[in-house]
Design goal:
By secondary structure, the protein is mainly β. It is built from five helices and 23 strands. Strand 16 (385-393) and strand 17 form a beta hairpin. Residues 1-20, 302-316, 458-469 and 478-492 have low confidence and may be disordered.
Length: 492
C-alpha cells in the first residue's frame, strides 16, 4: 500500500509542472470589479455606479519546488521528455511541495438595490491539488534507482501527503458603502456561497517509518489515511464532473478603503492609495467515501515487495487491495470513513494600490494560507505569495508587470493587459520566456466583463448660506454653477 502511496505522491509532483494562483497582479479596480468579487466581496460595491456583468474568467496555475522543466520542452514535438535534458530535479534543503489550481468564474452579475446595498450573484468552479512533505533526501533517493541507497534505505515520513479537490459554488454577495464622500470611500461585503462537491482524494501520514533492504524486501510501520470518492478510484469509469459530494456552505468577508486627497464634489478624482483585505473560503464540503477509505495502522515487517504493491487483480478496486492487506495482518483498520470532509482553502488576502502620479500605480498583493495540515487530512490549499505590480493606467487601458515571490522564495515576472472589458495576464510569462531555461511555475489568466453604465452620482454642492443665499442665486440650476469662493466652502 505504501509503495502505491509513494508513487501517487511523486506523480502529483510531476503532473503539477503541466497543469493550475488566481489572477496574480490584476488591478483590484478599474473598468469593472465584478471579477474580483469572489476574492474580496467588498468589490461588489463598485456596482453603485452601474450594473456589472462577468461573461467569463479563467485562471490556471501550477508550480513545485521538486522539478524544473526546460522551456525547450514546450517546442518538443515528439513528446519524449528526458531527465537531465528536458527536466531536472531541484536540489535544495526545502521540503518538497507541488500545487496545481484551476479557477473558472462563470456568469456573474452585480447591481444596486434600493440605492443602499450592492448585490452580486456568481457561479464558479475550482480544482485544487496539493502534494508535499518529502525531504530533499527522501525525494532524491526514491526517484532515482541509480542512487546507491535506493535498495538500502531507511527513512521516516512525517506529515506527508497529497490531495485533490474539485468543487463548484454559487455565491450571493451583499455589500454596502460605509462611507462615500469626496475624500474617503469605505466598502464592506460578504459572500455566502452554496458549495457543490464533485470529487476529492486524500492520502496522508502523520508518521510512517519506511525501510527498503538490499534483497528487495521493504516494510513500513506507522499510520496511513486514505480518503477518496468513487470517481477518483483508479478503476472508476466515472468522471470528475460527476457529483460525488454533498452540498455545503461557505463564507468570505472583505473590506476596502480609498483615500482621495484632491476631493472635488463636481468630478471623480483618483485615489492616492487604496487598501483591500479579505478572508476567503471559510467552510468545507462533505463527501461520500468509497470502499477502502480509512485510517490504517501499518505494521508490515520484512514483507516481500510484491505484498506491498498492487497486483493486476487489485486494480479493479482499492478496497480489494486494502482488504487483502488486512487479511494477512499487514494493516489494521482503525477507522473507516463512509463520509469525510475536505476543508476549503481558507486564505487571507491583502492588496495595497498606490498612485505614483502621471498615471503610474504600484500594487502590493499577498496571499497567506490559513489552514495547516491537521487530523488525518492533507489539506488542499493555495500557495502563499508576495506580489508587486507596477502598472501604467489610462483608465480603460492598463499594462502591468507583476513580480511575484512564490512561497516567498522563487521569483517570477509576468505581464498583464487590460483593454476595456477584456483582460489577459500571466505572473510567469516573462521569467519563463526571457530569464533562464528552467521553469518551475506557470500561470495564465483571462476574462471578459461588461459595465452596463458608468453614471456617477450627482455632484455634492457645498455652498455658503444654504437657502439664505440671494434669491437670484437659488434660481441658477446646479449644472450651471461653478466652483468658487462665493458658492463653495472648503472642507474642514
Amino acid at each position: 500500500m505504501f509503495g502505491k502511496y509513494i508513487r501517487t505522491a511523486l506523480i502529483l509532483f510531476i503532473s503539477c509542472n503541466a497543469n493550475a494562483q488566481q489572477f496574480i497582479g490584476m488591478p483590484m479596480s478599474g473598468y469593472t470589479s465584478i471579477q474580483q468579487m469572489p476574492y474580496n466581496p467588498a468589490m461588489v460595491n463598485y456596482a453603485i455606479t452601474g450594473p456589472e456583468i462577468n461573461v467569463y474568467g479563467l485562471s490556471v496555475l501550477a508550480g513545485n519546488n521538486a522539478y524544473s522543466v526546460n522551456k525547450r520542452l514546450l517546442f518538443n514535438q515528439d513528446g519524449d521528455a528526458k531527465e537531465g535534458v528536458d527536466y531536472a530535479k531541484l536540489n535544495s534543503k526545502h521540503i518538497k511541495r507541488g500545487w496545481a489550481n484551476v479557477d473558472i468564474l462563470g456568469p456573474a452579475v452585480g447591481f444596486t438595490y434600493k440605492k443602499q446595498y450592492q448585490i452580486g450573484i456568481y457561479t464558479r468552479f475550482r480544482s485544487v491539488a496539493n502534494a508535499g512533505g518529502l525531504t530533499n533526501d527522501q525525494f532524491t533517493v526514491l526517484t532515482n534507482e541509480k542512487d546507491p541507497r535506493y535498495y538500502n534505505y531507511a527513512t521516516e515520513f512525517k506529515k506527508t501527503g497529497a490531495s485533490a479537490h474539485a468543487f463548484g459554488e454559487i455565491g450571493f454577495s451583499v455589500g454596502k458603502m460605509l462611507r462615500d464622500d469626496d475624500y474617503f470611500k469605505v466598502r464592506v461585503g460578504v459572500n455566502v456561497k452554496y458549495l457543490i462537491g464533485f470529487a476529492a482524494f486524500n492520502v496522508y501520514t502523520k508518521s510512517l517509518a519506511y525501510y527498503r533492504l538490499q534483497d528487495s524486501l521493504e516494510y513500513g510501520r506507522g499510520d496511513l489515511t486514505t480518503m477518496f470518492t468513487y470517481n477518483t478510484n483508479p478503476s472508476s469509469t466515472g468522471e470528475l464532473s460527476q457529483r460525488a459530494g454533498k452540498g455545503g456552505l461557505g463564507l468570505d468577508i472583505g473590506i476596502q478603503f480609498e483615500y482621495h486627497p484632491d476631493g472635488d464634489p463636481n468630478k471623480k478624482t483618483p485615489y492616492k492609495y487604496a487598501v483591500a483585505a479579505s478572508i476567503t473560503d471559510i467552510g468545507s464540503v462533505t463527501y461520500v467515501g468509497d470502499k477502502g477509505s480509512a485510517t490504517y495502522k501499518v505494521n508490515a515487517g520484512l514483507t516481500m515487495l510484491d505484498a506491498l504493491s498492487f497486483q493486476e487483480s487489485d486494480r479493479q478496486e482499492i478496497a480489494f487491495y486494502s482488504n487483502r492487506m488486512k487479511s494477512i495482518g499487514l494493516m489494521t483498520e482503525e477507522k473507516a470513513y463512509e463520509k469525510f470532509r475536505i476543508g476549503l482553502p481558507t486564505a487571507f488576502r491583502l492588496n495595497i494600490d498606490y498612485n505614483l502620479g502621471s498615471k503610474f500605480y504600484t500594487s502590493v498583493n499577498t496571499l497567506m494560507n490559513l489552514k495547516g495540515n491537521g487530523g488525518n487530512v492533507y489539506r488542499p490549499g493555495y500557495v502563499g505569495y508576495l506580489n508587486i505590480t507596477p502598472r501604467y493606467d489610462l483608465g480603460s487601458v492598463k499594462f502591468g508587470l507583476p513580480i511575484t515571490f512564490v512561497r516567498w522564495r522563487s521569483l517570477n515576472m509576468g505581464a498583464v493587459f487590460n483593454l476595456g472589458p477584456f483582460y489577459l495576464g500571466s505572473a510567469t510569462l516573462l521569467s519563463s520566456l526571457l530569464i533562464g531555461n528552467a521553469i518551475t511555475d506557470f500561470d495564465v489568466y483571462t476574462g471578459l466583463t461588461i459595465k452596463l453604465s458608468n453614471e456617477e452620482k450627482p455632484p455634492k454642492l457645498r455652498e455658503y448660506g444654504g437657502y439664505d443665499k440671494p434669491w437670484y442665486q437659488r434660481l441658477v440650476p446646479n449644472f450651471m454653477r461653478r466652483k468658487s469662493s462665493i458658492y463653495y466652502c472648503p472642507r474642514y
